[in-house]
Amino acid sequence: MEPLIKMREMVYDIDAVRSQFPALRGGTVFFDGPGGTQTPAKVAAAISAAMVAGLSNRDRGTATGRRADDIVVASREAIGDLVASDPRGVVFGRSMTALTYDLARTLAKEWVPGDEVVVSSLDHDANIRPWVHAAEAVGAVVRWAHFDPATAELSVDAVREHLGERTKVVAVTAASNVLGTRPDIAGIARAAHEVGALMHVDAVHLAPHALLDREALGADFLVCSPYKFFGPHCGVQVTAPALLETLRPDKLDPSPTAVPERFEQGTLPYELLAGVSAAVEAVANLDARATGSRRERLTASFAATDEHESALLRDLEAGLRQIDGMQIFSLAAHRTPTLFLQIEGVSSVDLSRDLAALDINAPSSNFYALEASRRLGLGDAGALRVGLAAYTNHEDVQRLIGGLSEAVTSLR
User: What are phi and psi of 360, to 5 degrees?
Assistant: First the structure.
């Protein structure tokens, strides 16, 4: 099968992109990017260089302390460019989950019984359970906004109907990590702000696929995970510094009181933050022709990546729909190149196992989108998830289609 749309090779050189990822040389096809992308050599080199150059705790009096401080400052600036937000509001943590739990506990200090939080069944559990637990601890009410399982869409109205004068936080994903659905976050945020609520946006799954602008989205808090866009395993929370100044998280008495440091428990992993900066640079350079500031290069590279991934997605969907019994749950009009699917009469776990035997990574699970899986009628087991990444090429797509056809024939 020929690609439905020819790539603009001069803008998006897929071979050049793939050459940056050593893991691709082993022959494995990676459709598990939604769970974590592969790592460019330059990111690994940045992490290694930081570790061997000599580091100590941050200060400006020693060479090693200045090196650590410079790494932290540079990583905040990189994330600031990635999401168009003030670097002084960038908080690093062990994971998005840990950061969200810490934030929920901090905000809940000001809640009283009868206050309300709104969560969505479209979300990864990391943007649900921290808010549920925080609400339960103080007697607040949890209200659920549900997506339409027939369309995979979460509308603004589905959220708005749960808003009121007691709403404190609205927590909604910018893109479903299983369905790919991209709700109208800006519209939901406007509705939340109309009742005086804060908007918490999980951008973990969207960050690898689209240019983010925290303020344009209306996100008071935006979280993402660098390991989903070529970086190391850690989490990031981005907020306006003025809002952070109003919050008082639990912390050690001697630890910094300044923003954003007072939200970062313990010593930061400096070597990983060096990798975060390198990862943002890698994303910014996906379009080899891009020039200008890092934000300008990010803008160009995301546009080129979107064209590349969208064309591959059309090819992939066309091929998958030729497989008898195929059911694709990812139906939203606006979504990432992510497919959640099952094949009638065939176990998704068995499909994943047989694909793995062909060196094709496409796992089966609920992927912590437990509420979404249940709402789709899949229970806790979930289904097969296929995610395209910036390094996916046409041959990968054809291997997956062929592998699935082969596995289905064998399993039926």
Answer: -120, 115
Let me know: does 182 contact 156? Beta carbons within 8 Å: no
Peptide linkage before 260 cis (omega within 30 of 0): yes
Q: Give the whole-angstrom CA distance, residue 230 versus residue 248.
A: 32
Q: How far apart are CA 133 and CA 136, in angstroms?
A: 5
- State the DSSP H helix or E strand holding residue 252, giving kind and residue range, or none if neither: none
CA dihedral over 354, 15, 174, 36, signed as positive or negative? positive
pLDDT, tens only, 155-169: 999 999 999 999 999
| Cβ-Cβ contacts under 8 Å for 254 (sequence gap 6 or more) | none
Buried b (16+ CB within 10 A) or exposed e, 125-141: bbbbbbbbebbeeeebb
Q: What percent of the chain has pLDDT over 70?
A: 97
Amino acid at 19: S
Show Cβ contacts of residue 207 under 8 Å, excluding neighbours closer than 6 positions.
82, 83, 224, 225, 228, 229
Burial of 357 (C-beta count, 10 Å sphere; 0-12/13-18/19+): exposed
pTM for this predicted structure:
0.96
